[in-house]
Sequence to fold (371 residues):
Amino acid sequence: MPATTAVTDRITHGTWTVDRAHSGVTFTVAHAGLALFHGSFRDVDARLVVGDGAELTGSVRVDSIDVEDENIRPHLLSPEFFDAERYPEIRFASSELLLDGDEAHVVGELEIAGTQRTVEARGRLRGPIELGGANKLALALETTIDRTEFGMDWQMELPNGGKALADDVAISVELELARE
Amino acid sequence: MRILAIPGSVRSDSHNARLLRYVAEQAPAGVEVEIWPDLKSIPPYDQDDDVEPAPASVADLRRAIAAADALLIATPEYNHSIPGVLKNAIDWASRPRASTPLQNLPAAVIGASTGRFGAVWAQAELRKVLAATGARVIDLELAVPLAAEAFDAQGRPTEPEQRARVGELVGALIAAAQARAYPAEVPALAA
Fold:
């Protein structure tokens, strides 16, 4: 287990697993330098293991992607973007995890379309609280990645000279985790 | 293994059809190359006509693509781009977008032209179009320039280098189809 971790005492040792109904991943990318385009993944898995250290791992099923336009979805699943047939999951494993007060800070390897990059995310910790007979906490994490670093370099020049799609993609992860 | 090969030119003495016939003759054992005979019978794309049942020629093309392990298109160049009949056929085959048999299909683009450049601009445009349909377009190019003099009496490229390039490109296409049929396991995430 990675050594560079610190977890607030209020989280008990053990394994915390995702409550899928109350977890999700959304992404936001600027379209044509104008509006922000949003999408999300419905099928999210995550696990927080707290012992002497702590580790956060997670994955999403790429084909659970949800976007507004029915023609955009297959394009995003195609080899030009996520290449879902070859890489059905996006995966993450932390190498550093700091949960201090309400602050969360995590560093780890993110793999998208078969390419791994180190990313850093920040956010907040809520809980744990007793909820419906379970001990639950929530982690909200945010980061921004450059999609071209993951080989996702699809682009179209706009007639006015701009770009159809920005390189930077903001990612927001909301996890509700229950103590096993 | 089945490769569907589509010539982008419909004329009877098409250089691109000749190039694909050479590919079919040279195909390794176990690889069947079906040359699509008839883009001309595919009607102009009209969303009003894009209903079930599809026009017969369109349904045939969609079935042939769905049955193929790989797609090879040989295109000429018209006005720096691909022929309208070819674009029209791809437009039909790409619909409905969510269930097109082109999605993830390994595809390669080659081209012959009577000019000095061998349809390289049309090939680039065709790669873009195929990628938009979701095809897995391999990143190799084969340009046969001066096509009127580029084939011998048996229909083979006269230049040995061209023949080697054809073999290399078809080999890469077959490898892409095999990789799709037998995907490698994704290794564990190294944190």
